[in-house]
Amino acid sequence: MSADSKQPQPPPDDRAAATAADSVSLLLSNARLTDGRTVDVRLGGGRIEAVGTAGSLTAVGSRVDLAGYLLLPAPAEPHAHVDTALTADSPGPVSYAVDEVQRRATEATLLQLGHGATAVRAQVRIGGVHGLGPLEAVLQARRSLRGLADLTAVATPRLLTGAAGADGLAMLRDALKMGAGVVGGCPDLDPDPTGYVEALLDVAAEHGCPVDLHTDADDPGRLARLAAMVAGLRPGVTIGPCAGLARLPGDTARRAADQLAAAGVTVVCLPQGGCAGTERRGTAPVRLLRAAGVRVAAGGGALRDVSNPVGRGDPLEAGYLLASLGGLSAPEAYGAVSAEARAAMGLPEVRVEAGFPAELLAVRGERLAGVLSLAYSRIVVHRGRVVARTSAVREYCDSAAALDLPRQVRPERPERPDRPDRPDRPDPGGRTGA
């Protein structure tokens, strides 16, 4: 059974909205690709219909001029906490009323969409005093966001073993019936971590859904048992953030990485350093894992919640940190937040080639390293239509003109901010686009 064959399908109302969105036709002209070519890209039916040299394709519907932009496969967010996001500044106890969680989940997902993440996998706590309320709220947010972004919920019970675990198991099955697409949780918090994983795998097998485990990965014996239990399972198993691997002795960490690679486990690291499910901060040893053959994706983790009062929810920031601190090349770093993140989430591959899904991100800049450094202006395409745009303009005082600074001019026919899919009048100049 392949991972793609058992991916959760959207409910009927989501499919209707997706069909409507997919009917849009759009031409992206004068886009620069990472190989240096400048091309036109025609989108239709939610996919890339054609890619040709600049000026070779005609617009059937709307047109967006991407002169000055680098066109990339859109990133995805494989490890978010939208139910707790944006709570760091709450004046009192954090509310978990369904409407409040839905508001936070929607705002957090839109924030990440504006950065380019057209798909988000959210870890959602279930059980305890809040029961299934947070999950209900996230699923409502998913419905409200249909056509803008794809939001998938990971049902994460705290306990699955012992007397208390029976309630957790029942609630986990109810969560899947409600619409959760992935089962997960933090086995490190259960009195019987191995039993927790066994119970979770049983439920995943019953429903044919993926598994996403939250672990610090600082216990090599526990990791070895996990690898043995999940080896060869389909759909795949994802674990993260695994910062504890970096604190193990080198030989021990390499042996654990070899075991994870042999089992086909994907690791989702959090370059900004941890989230609510872990006590200690840090990030996974990305280069060691990649050298062992482990697929490594990168996520954002906490987004201004009580565990971390900062956070941008920006995949390109995660890529920047992997390149600047993790020792990856710019293409490898961007791949961790795009191709590898999508693979970890069971999503189809995206390339800027005919036939691939029209999930794209255009960023003002010429090369990938520069985009990871100064990614201000962005245009986000989901299911073949522009769903978000961020435009940044930097202005200097008059005395700066005497320095004869290089200027980054806007395209001759930029799109109006309120109509991102329609070209409009040229900008009058005097400003520097970023």
What do these coordinates show?
The strands form 5 sheets. The chain has an 8-stranded parallel beta sheet. It has a 4-stranded mixed beta sheet with strand order 3-2-1-4, with no helix packed on it. It is an alpha/beta fold and 434 residues long. Helix content is 31%, strand content 23%. Mean pLDDT is 88; it is low at 1-11, 414-418 and 420-430. It has 12 helices and 20 strands.
- How does the helix and strand content classify structurally? alpha/beta
Distance between the termini: 46 Å
Number of helices: 12
Strands of the largest sheet, in order across it? Answer: 6-7-8-9-10-11-12-13
What Rg do the Cα atoms give? Answer: 22 Å
Query: How does the major sheet shape up?
Result: 8 strands, parallel
Query: Could you list the spans in which at least 5 consecutive residues all have pLDDT below 50?
Result: 1-11, 414-418, 420-430
Shape: globular
Helix-strand layout with pairing:
Layout: H1 12-22, E1 26-32, E2 38-44, E3 47-53, E4 62-65, E5 69-73, E6 77-80, H2 98-115, E7 119-126, H3 133-144, E8 150-157, H4 162-178, E9 182-185, H5 193-207, E10 211-215, H6 220-230, E11 237-241, H7 250-263, E12 266-269, H8 286-292, E13 296-298, H9 315-324, H10 330-337, H11 339-344, E14 360-364, H12 368-373, E15 378-382, E16 385-390, E17 393-394, E18 415-416, E19 419-423, E20 432-433
Parallel strand pairs: 1-4, 6-7, 7-8, 8-9, 9-10, 10-11, 11-12, 12-13
Antiparallel strand pairs: 1-2, 2-3, 5-14, 14-15, 15-16, 17-20, 18-19
Helix pairs in contact: 2-3, 4-5, 5-6, 6-7, 9-10
